[in-house]
Write a structure and sequence with these properties.
Blueprint lengths: L9 E6 L2 E6 H6 L7 E2 L2 E3 L7 E3 L5 H19 L11
Antiparallel strand pairs: 1-2, 3-4, 4-5
């Protein structure tokens, strides 16, 4: 899953012999997670590709949100989102 609005966030999708480019923010929004809150973290209400710390958010909550989004997108679209960042 890409967490920046750059053009690199376009996801190539093969369908019926054609390749479509879909932004991960579109996928996250269309599984109903735009503005979704978990503890002290949420997906932005303005752009679903951004995580927002609501004040007391933790790394664990951020990763839970990311994993939840990946699962929901996989369930609905059969697309596996990948992190653009490397978690160490």
């Amino acid at each position: 899953m890409y967490l920046s609005p750059s053009t690199s966030s376009l996801r190539p999708i093969a369908a019926l012999g054609a390749v479509l480019l879909i932004k991960s923010s579109y996928l996250i929004e269309n599984v109903g997670l735009k503005g979704y809150i978990l503890g002290g973290m949420s997906f932005s209400e303005l752009h679903a590709n951004f995580l927002v710390n609501l004040g007391e958010g933790t790394f664990e909550e951020a990763m839970e949100l990311i994993d939840f989004a990946k699962m929901k997108v996989k369930e609905k679209f059969n697309i596996e989102l990948e992190l653009e960042i490397e978690v160490i």
